[in-house]
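Holo prediction — zinc ion.
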Amino acid sequence: MSNENSKPGQDWRLMGQENYLKSVTLSWRKYARYSEKWDQDHCEFCSAKFMVEDYPDVLHEGYCTENQYRWICQKCFEDFKEQFDWKVIKSKDG
Ligand SMILES: [Zn+2]
């Protein structure tokens, strides 16, 4: 086994999100559907599942963009907040 493929400083979860998530404003919210047609969302980084319903291994709260279109789980938020320079505001409903 060699470690040649693991680049230091590059996390497997990073796939160009800095193009649309750099320096954005996030707020901590209870998960709500963005659209009636969608029953779930995924963390922009690790793909953890956000759902309204109670299922094993789903998240019900997380950090989201102001339009509630993109969601980030707490762990990824903590891991990337400095790199992405996020601004966190308190959500109006909570
Ligand atoms: Zn995540």
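READOUT: The mean pLDDT is 89.
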